[in-house]
Design a protein that fits this description.
Length: 123
């Protein structure tokens, strides 16, 4: 991969909604705002459409309740809790609002970190 981008945002997985729940559910509104903000941040670095091949690393921030000792043990290690990795990728791809059938290769991971961010690599 030739280009690497670091987008500072707390990653969020896609939410499942029903038509009735879409308008009342706080998660849906937070998810909609996340997609809008992510789309703007991606445009700022020159990404206007979903890449067809990319690697993506989601860095999820520590909860405030974690001690410094626990943070030191987990920093950079695999994140094995929710949100699920596939939902994080779906949330990323949903921000483009277009058909993502042209995507043919994705390498993905999620790890612990001090701040939420998405590291994206494209050709």
């Amino acid at each position: 991969m030739e280009n690497q981008y670091k987008i500072i945002i707390n990653p969020m997985g896609a939410v499942r909604t029903t038509q009735a729940g879409k308008f009342a559910d706080k998660r849906y509104h937070r998810y909609r705002d996340y997609k809008t903000e992510l789309r703007l941040l991606l445009k700022q670095v020159g990404i206007h459409k979903c890449p067809s091949a990319f690697f993506i690393k989601f860095v999820l921030p520590f909860p405030v309740s974690y001690t410094e000792k626990k943070k030191d043990l987990l920093r950079g290690k695999p994140h094995t809790q929710k949100p699920d990795l596939d939902n994080l990728v779906k949330g990323f791809m949903d921000c483009f609002g277009t058909d993502d059938s042209g995507v043919h290769w994705i390498r993905m991971s999620k790890v612990w970190g001090d701040e939420g961010k998405i590291i994206l690599g494209t050709e």
